[in-house]
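Loading example: each entry is read as two labelled lines plus one structure line.
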Amino acid sequence: MTVSLRLFRAATALIYLIVTVGALVAMGLFCLFLVAVKDLPQVPEPIGRINDTPGTEIFSADGRRILLIGGRETVALDDVSYAFIQAILATEDHRFWEHRGINKLRTVKALWITLFESGKVQGASTITQQLAKNLFFSFERTYIRKFRELLVALQIEAQFSKQEILEAYINQIPFGVGAYGIGEAARTFFGKSAGELTLVEASLLAGLPKSPTRYNPFRYPDRARARQQVVLQRMVTTGMISREEATDAGTAPVDLRAQGRSLRVDSYFLDAVSSSRLKRPCNRALPSWNPRWI
Amino acid sequence: MPAWSEPQDLKTWMVRGLSFRGTVLFLAVLAILISEVRFSWVEVLVGRYLVVTNIHRPESGSVWEQGRLKQVATQTLEQMATRQLTAQREAREATSLAQLIEGLSASQGTMISAVQFRTLYSQIPEAVARTLFSPILMLRISAEKSWDRVYMERENGQVGIYLLDRSNNVLSYTTLTDQQLRSTGTEPPVLTGVLDEQPEFAGRIYPADRFFMALDTLSPETQRGVLSQPGTLLAVEGTPVRVGISDEVNADMIRIGVEMDTPQGRQILLAMGQEWAVWQVRMLLEPRLSKPSSSKKRWPIRRGEP
């Protein structure tokens, strides 16, 4: 048997092996799909409900609502600064408009690193996958859990438009200091609406979701500015802005709003409710506490 | 069909590999892979399948759980509000303070206007009224014009009554015990048994004929001070046998127990007498009390005195 024939046979065996492994992986994925889909949660409609976090409402004994604490403000995609949309897409998922819920190449790469490079965990979640996470109770990191998130992401992509998905996403991003969603973040950090954000401000905000505490611009302005440079660089790399624009934005001063909590006139009442709840924790939907003299 | 055998040389391998069937198979697999990478049809198919089956899947997860909790909370709130409104309506329609207090549930207080409370307050016997709020205090608070409403609630087996101004500041408050509660009605409070079983009357129990004879010798004003509503005692079926005077003074009032021999057995009717008036009767019943003694404590002993 010649050497070339031996090589050819080896190559053939390799191809058979690849095909067999491929078939096994496909079958495994199919079985996993059947298992995961069994109790996959229902996706709500409209998709904005996926990050629906009702505020805490406090009622008087006769049923009147006297206080609303928290809750999320939803901003329409058209009312958000274009610079922010570009910045967040460049940072989080620059192929958002192209993929169908999963970035295959990034996923394979991340899987490879996670499986074969010990001590390293690579993430490759798309914006849709990040949104899908909200449907689940906890954020435990298991493979079956990731797979189920992936399935939900595929469904979201098939059911809703890209605009709807992006709108839901930007309204649930945690920016830190208790600000969820771009509307609240723009007001908290710059005292303006989401539609008024400039490139400088948008790039700063787009860098925060990675680690809202670590990049908190109020406490760590240098870290926040460094992260802003990363965002601007990503925008240049993905062709969203020119290098000159990035340089200008990177050197421009950031006018942060003075931090301070406004004193509510009803804060004394709020404190009474909170301390009452702390003293008597209740796992029911409603507190048994009864506002006495309201 | 001849059995498949492995080619023994490279040429045969090439011929077989590049055959029409082999090429078609290879291209088909390649087309599937490339089209998947390009058009993501597997993702689309899976996504559409999940959209179709979405309605049959469980409403589990944080979003749905929050929705359910909100629904439960809304329903519970509606029930609470309805209960509260009903309680308020019943409170407004109450014709006596006793009826109003009886309608108070353990977990829910009630608010009534100052005007309504004044009306109900004026209907209860003066002796009992004094144990709640002194009439002078009520007049003073009324004159200040800041008194707006009254909040009542059950707490620790008692009823708390809070007189509030418009800003919810407490102008005055008191608590009522069960016995006092019963006194606010028109029926006198009744205990089953004899006076000797009640420690507060120990050493101060007198035959009924002696007690009423002594009372009869006093002025009408003093008589009213001792028994503000003697008619309620007369209305009870039975005969007075003994009368006891309590050793406790509460807001210048002393409890008087009248032991009655009734068809149901011995019963004690309770009434409240004013301290100064009861003192007059007691002096007649026990003349030695009228002689002051420096070594003895003044009678009656006030609550809290050592």
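Chain A touches chain B through 46 residues (CB under 8 Å).
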